[in-house]
Structure formats: C-alpha cells, structure tokens
Amino acid sequence: MAKKLFVKTYGCQMNVYDSARMADVLAPHGYEPGDSAESADLVILNTCHIRERATEKVYSELGRLRALKDEAARQGRRMLIGVAGCVAQAEGEEIARRAPVVDLVFGPQTYHRLPEMLVRALDRYTQGGTGSGGARVVDTDFPAEAKFDHLPEESRGQGAAAFLSVQEGCDKFCTFCVVPYTRGAEFSRPAAAVLAEARRLVAAGAVEITLLGQNVNAYHGESADGGIWGLGRLIRALAEIEGLARLRYTTSHPRDVDDELVAAHRDVPALMPYLHLPVQSGSDRVLAAMNRKHTAETYRRIVDRLREARPDLALSSDFIVGFPGETDLDFADTLRLVREVGYAQAYSFKYSARPGTPAADMGEAVPEAVKAERLAALQQLIGAQQTAFNRSAAGSVQPVLFERQGSRAGQLVGRGPWMQSVHADAPDRLLGRIVPVRILDGHANSLSGAVVTADGPDSNTHRVAVHSAIERAIA
Ligand code: 5AD
Ligand code: SF4
C-alpha cells in the first residue's frame, strides 16, 4: 500500500518549490502526498528562518506532532517526522536533542538524499522498537554534488502556474539576513537544465513559470556553448518555449539589475509587468549599515530604467523599519522613497535580530514602540498605494490566468499580469487558461471582474489598460 507523505511548508516560494521536489524524490519510493499529518507515515516540516521566533514555532509544532506520533504508535502505525529547510540548517543536531520526536533533520541542499536518510531512519526505528534506538539522521551538509543533478526528472507537475528554481543561495551578506548562512553560497543551475525543466512543466500544463532564487537576478548559469548566461538571456530563451505564455522571477536584488535584464523587460512580452525589487530602506545611512551595496538614488535610477523599458511595470518591495540606529530622519527618507516610487504592493517588517548576523551585534536598538509606530505609518502609506492601484484597474480588460476555485460556488480566482488576485464567475473548464476579464471593481487586496465572452459587448476590447494608478496614488 502506498505510504502517505505530509509536508507542511513555511516561508518563501523557494520552500514551496523544495516541498514539491521532496514529494518527487519520494514518489518512486512509494510515498504519495496525503492531506493531513494525522494519517501520514512521514511528516516533514519545511521550515523558514526569516521570521522572528521561527525556531520556537517549529518546536511548538513538533510538540503537537509528538501527540500524533504517540497516537499512531498506539494504533500500531509508524510515523516518521522530519524537519527540513532553513531552521533545520541553522539548528542541526540541536533539533534532534531538543525534540527527540524528530527522526530526520536535513537542510535545503540535501533533500535529494531523502531516500537513503529514510532507510537509516527506519533501521533505527526497527532497532529501537519505539524509535528511540541509535542516532538520529542529521544531514545539513552543503554537499559537493549538486542537488539538482540528483533530483528526479519526473515531476508531478504543478498546474498552470508553476515555480522553477534557477538559483540558490546568496553572497550579498546583508547584515540583518540569515540566508547566506542557511542557504549557502550562490549557485546557478546550467541554462540547459532550466530549459529542460521548463519544457517538462509546460508539457505538464504550465502556462506561467516563476523563476525562483534567493537572489534570482544574480543568475549566471553555464550555457550550452560554454558561455555564461545572465537572467535576461535566460528569460529570452525561455520565452521561446511554445505554450509558455507568462514568465516572472523573484526575488531580485537592485545591484544585479543589468542592461540585459532591463532589455528583457522591454523586448519580451511574456515577461509580466510586475517586479518584486526589495529596497529595505530609503536612507543611505541605513542602507550602508545594512550592507545593501546600493543607495536610495541608485535604486530610483534602476526603477526609472525599468519603467522606461516597460512603462506599465508595477513594483513591489520589502522594507525593514527600526534597523539599529535608524532615526526619525532615516525613516522619513523611507516614506519619501515610497511616495516617489509608488508601489503596487509591499511587505514591511520590524527589524528583529537574527543570532549570528552582524546587525545582531550593532547595538543602537530602536525601541519596540518606535518600531511599531513606524511600521504602522509605512503600512498605511503602502496600503493606500495598493488600494489606489487596484481601484485604477476598474474598467480595464486584463488577461487572467485562472488557478483555483473561489470560496463562492461558480467563482474562479486567478491572477492578472500585475499579480493581483482576480475573482470572477466562470465555469471550471476555464481553470488553467488565460481568459480576458473585464475588471469591475478594485478592492484593498483583490479585483473582481466578469469574463469577457466571445459574443459579448466586450469582444473587441481585448486591450490591457496601462496602469496609471501609481501616479494617482502619489498625487
Ligand atoms: N528583521 C526583519 N526583517 C527581515 N527580513 C530579513 N531579515 C530580517 C530581519 N532580521 C525581511 C527582509 C527580506 C524579507 C524576506 O524579510 O525585508 O527582504
Ligand atoms: Fe538576504 Fe540580502 Fe541575500 Fe536578500 S540579498 S537573501 S536580504 S543577504
């Protein structure tokens, strides 16, 4: 009988991708995705270390899983528990020590070895009877062999909007960030491997692919002729795949926006007009302390070049408020930058120290109350820009890729070119297809619309409105 696998994913899209690939690795070994931890033979927590108290949350989830594992044992079932991802990488052996319920600990670079780890974990289980014999399986190496060369080619397919990991790790060492330590040095997959995986995803039904990497536009993959391709070149090659209508990429660093990438935004219609380009702060002093390697002015200039190339480009960003030493004046610079650039969407966080990162030892902590105040002010501004951007879509017709059923019967939810969620009444047969939708209304977090039918009054209006919302939001 097939064994059940349940993977609970935290954090970024890289983890969503890794979780799907773990399922691919385990499929030939008789594991099928199940829909709950209760009935699973193997539960994996694919963890994220970016957020505050991430580690504590993993331990409390492990407490819950211990009860399930005990219950399974009472019923004579064996349940294995694995911890993967960045918390596993950072904590390693410590997890197995603090949470004996855990059978396997492995990092983002070793999950291709899952089948061997499982054999060892099961041996240990058998020897110990209750799962207490022998050492736990801990594999948090950065192995010499490339993970991607050892992952199965077959993939379950990810539906109409798929993710494809092209780059991993980061060499930027922003002083607040754990990623260079948990994900390791920067690595780009060869272009041929990326193209082959993209073709397989399209054959399995994908019409949109999001290229993933911690620092995706640092991509510098080997090409078939022995040269090196940057992300712009890779995007051009991917855009030639028949049936692939949309491309996106995330997350990028301003420093790595080169001319070739800007030109791809100008020349490749499949490259969607929406870009997540984190700036973190609008103050040069803070940007320097963060080791971001760019100023507010260079960021503005990059945005100008991108918008010149693709005038309807909408932007999103990440911001950190209350970085050590951030003054009211520094924060005012951030608000000014947000007003000037204008965002369709953005994430903002209060700075919190991550042990082992340089910023954790900087002192000059900003009081919690000040951080909270700044966060509220920033979120209010970003929220107003986002709502204005969404409202400005009303009346336009957008191509929407329907991805799932909505909460109301007869309703589908999809995404337009600018990443907005669009809700519309539509039959299920439109799932996985790109369909023109007239936007009726823009809300704080989504759009509602009506499918444009071939014989309807909109039949000649397959025109996509260029958003001028951002200018309106600033005005
Ligand atoms: N404190 C607050 N926010 C952080 N981020 C990363 N590290 C920290 C930290 N120590 C935010 C950054 C990054 C996003 C993924 O998480 O804004 O871009
Ligand atoms: Fe972290 Fe900076 Fe690298 Fe992004 S660029 S992953 S914030 S170190």
Structural features, described:
- The chain is α/β, with parallel strands linked by helices and 475 residues long.
- The radius of gyration is 23 Å and the shape is globular.
- 44% of the residues are buried.
- The strands form six sheets. Strands 2-1-3-4-5-6 form a six-stranded parallel sheet, with helices on both faces. Strands 17-18-19-21-20 form a five-stranded mixed β-barrel.
- The N and C termini lie far apart (63 Å).
- Residues 457-475 have low confidence and may be disordered.
- It contains 15 helices and 21 strands.
- Residues 170, 172-174, 177, 179-180, 214-215, 253 line the site of iron/sulfur cluster.
Integer-rounded radius of gyration: 23 Å
Largest sheet: 6 strands, parallel
The helix fraction, in percent, is 25-40%
- Taken as a percent bin, the fraction of beta residues is 15-25%
Spatial order of the strands in the main sheet? 2-1-3-4-5-6
Q: Count the helices. How many? A: 15
Principal-axes geometry comes out as globular
**Stretches with pLDDT under 50, minimum 5 residues:** 457-475
Would you tell me the structural class of the helices and strands?
Answer: alpha/beta
Distance N to C terminus:
63 Å
Mean pLDDT, as a whole number?
90
Number of strands: 21
Unique bound compounds: 5'-deoxyadenosine, iron/sulfur cluster
Summarize the structure.
This protein has helices at residues 13-26, 54-74, 85-91, 93-98, 114-128, 147-150, 179-182, 191-203, 231-239, 259-267, 284-289, 296-309, 328-341, 368-391, 469-474; strands spanning 3-9, 31-33, 42-47, 80-84, 104-106, 137-139, 161-165, 167-168, 187-188, 208-212, 220-222, 228-230, 246-250, 274-276, 314-321, 345-350, 397-405, 411-415, 421-425, 434-442, 446-451. The protein has 475 residues and is an alpha/beta fold. The strands form 6 sheets. The protein has a 6-stranded parallel β-sheet with strand order 2-1-3-4-5-6, with helices on both faces. Strands 17-18-19-21-20 form a 5-stranded mixed beta barrel.
